[in-house]
Amino acid sequence: MKSSAAYLMLALALSVAGCSSDSTVSSAAISAAAVGDSCAADADCGAGATCLTAGFPGGLCTAECSGTVACPDGSLCASLASDANTAYCAVSCNSNDDCRNGYTCNSIGVCNPPTSGTSDAGTDGSGDAGDAGTDVTPPSSPNIGAACATASECAAPGGLEALCLSEANGFPAGTCSAACDPAGANTCGDGAACLPTSVGGRCVSACTAETTCRTAYECCNFGAGALCLPDGLLASCTAPAPTPVDNRPAPGEIAASCVDDSECTVGPAPVCFAQFGPGLCTSGCADDADCGVNGVCGDVGGGQTFCFRSCTAETDCAVDFVCCDVGGASICLDGGLCR
């Protein structure tokens, strides 16, 4: 029987997706780059090449690449740890012996620092579909929750490792994700949350009762929040409660709280009416148009008409006022005037 606990233990198989340097378009800058050499600055790597230093022991000479900009022989195009949103040329390898000291041969066959974004967990069947290796540059903005077939279609927030949770593992049409720290503070960015699984944290789209998850996904309470999860993944999917609507009048509007006339701004003759209790803004009027948003022009007798605020609940009225039925119309009034 599926449960939250079962989902935590879900092992996500890693479909390793390497990349190709068989592009028919070449780049003189990339061809001239000493890919994989140590460096301290771009000048050490040759014209047009880049020296990656943060997180790369001894520096790493490389150059940007894509499906139309090829890497030289002996290297592949992959997303490296420094920037999951940009593809670079990396030394191809079959084992760690093919890599410089401080680098290991990962699952897509390129030399990278052991802690890099390109995962090497693909050989034990306990990873995610679509390793970070790619032959195209991923999207420039995070797209957690978007449909995907490989990680090359995904972009992770904050330099995290981009992943694609596959349809084969229960995610219809695939879903873009990222490796994350469940104990981290909002590591997945706005609109997403880090879900603990048996293979580590995975970014998943967050949701509310007012948002709509993709087709074949449902919004289920999970831990401290709610996530878009595949239909039926949890045996009991409890949807989050709707966010309470606070439609109280803004300062100065009809039926807003007030102390004196200067605080009221709506209507032909704004005034703070406080004869029988807490002050509320009103105005003389000729029709509803004089009374602004949610305002109605009502007859108070003696040939006089004033603005009132229509309502359906207490949250439509200012604090200290109630939604009161007067002659079949619901308006905001001091509770003492509501009979």
Compose a concise summary of this entry.
The protein has 339 residues and is mainly β. The chain has two helices and 19 strands.
Strand order of the largest sheet: 7-8-10-9
In percent, how helical is the residue content? Answer: under 10%
Mean pLDDT: 76
- Report Rg: 30 Å
Poorly predicted regions are 1-28, 116-127, 129-136
Q: Output the structural class.
A: mainly beta
Count helical runs: 2
* Major beta-sheet overview: 4 strands, antiparallel
What percentage of amino acids are in beta strands?
A: 25-35%
The backbone outline, from C-alpha atoms, is elongated
What does this structure look like?
This protein is mainly β. The chain has 2 domains: about 5-230, no CATH class; about 255-335, no CATH class. The protein is about 5% helix and about 25% strand. The chain is built from 2 helices and 19 strands. Strands 7-8-10-9 form a 4-stranded antiparallel β-sheet, with no helix packed on it. The protein has a 3-stranded antiparallel β-sheet with strand order 13-15-14, with no helix packed on it. A hairpin with a 5-residue loop joins strand 14 (about 270-275) and strand 15 (about 280-285). The radius of gyration is 30 Å and the shape is elongated. Residues about 1-30, about 115-125 and about 130-135 have low confidence and may be disordered.
Short key terms for the protein model shown above:
single chain; 339 residues; mainly beta; 2 domains; four-stranded antiparallel beta sheet; three-stranded antiparallel beta sheet; 19 strands; disordered N terminus
